[in-house]
Design a protein that fits this description.
binds adenosine monophosphate, about 35% helix, Rossmann fold, alpha/beta, Pantoate--beta-alanine Ligase, Chain: A,domain 2
Length: about 280
Amino acid sequence: MQVWKTINTAREAIHVGGADLRPLGLVPTMGALHEGHLALVREARSRCAAVIVSVFVNPTQFSPGEDFSRYPRPFDRDCELLENESVCAVFAPDPGEMYDGDATTTVQVSGLTDHLCGPFRPGHFNGVATIVTKLFNVLSPDAAFFGEKDFQQLQVVRRVVRDLNLPVDIVPCPTVRDADGVALSSRNAYLTPPQRVQARSLSAALFSAKNRIACGVSDVSVLIADMRRQILAAGPAQIEYLEIVDPDTLKPVVRADRPVRIALAVRIGACRLIDNVPAP
Ligand code: AMP
C-alpha cells in the first residue's frame, strides 16, 4: 500500500497506474478509522479495481470552537487497518498541501444546508463540498463511497456532483452500529463509559419513532415530543435538533405519511453525536 502525501505524487501514480486502476474507488475520511469506514472500503473493493482512501482532517469543515485540534489522528494504526483491506493507496496530505493560504474559491450548496446540522455548524457544508470537489479533481475517482451516518453530507455531495457535472458515481453505504445500536463514530472516543451507555438513547429513540411511523403514527409533533422525552430520560443531554425531514429536500415535514428521514444531533458531555434512520 502506498502513502501519498502530495497532490503531484498522487496524480503521477494514478496516471502511471492507468487502466489497471479503473474503475477507481475513493473513500474520503478524516481518519480515526472504525468498522463504519472499513465497511465503505469493503463496498468500494467489491465494485472497483483499486481503492484509494483519503485521510485528511479538513480544517475548513470545522466551525470556530469545534474539535479540529483535538480530533484523533492515529495515522499509523489507520494505515495498518487499510493495509489489511488491500487498499491501493492512502492519500494523506497536510492542510498546506490542500489549501493555499490565499484561496478564495469555495463550493457552496444552498437549500439542502438550511436545516439539520446547517444552522448549528456555520460553514461546515461549504468546507465539505469544497474538499470533496478538490479530492475528486486531484484523484479522479470513478466512484466515491459515503456513509448514510452523515445523511445530510451525502445529500450535499450528491447535489455538488449533479450541479457541477462531476463524473463520479456516488455510492451510499448503510450506517454501521455497535451491538447496542449506537452508530460508530470517531467522536465516540470522547464519551466516558456512562455517557457511552447514555448514548444508546439516541438510536433507541430513532428506532422507536421509525416503528411508530410503520404502525401508522404520522403526527410529527407527537413523534418528536416522544423522542425528546426518551432521550432526556436517559441523562443530561443538550438536544440541538430532532427533525423528521423529506429525504430529498431535507425540509421538515408535518406528517410522516410518506418516506422520511428522522435525524438528530445531541450533545452528551463534550461529544456532539448525530444519527438518522429512514422511515417507515
Ligand atoms: P469521517 O471520517 O467521520 O469524515 O467519515 C468518513 C466517511 O465514513 C463518511 O462518508 C461517513 O459518513 C462514513 N461513516 C462514518 N461513520 C460511519 C458509520 N458508523 N457507518 C457508515 N459509514 C460511516
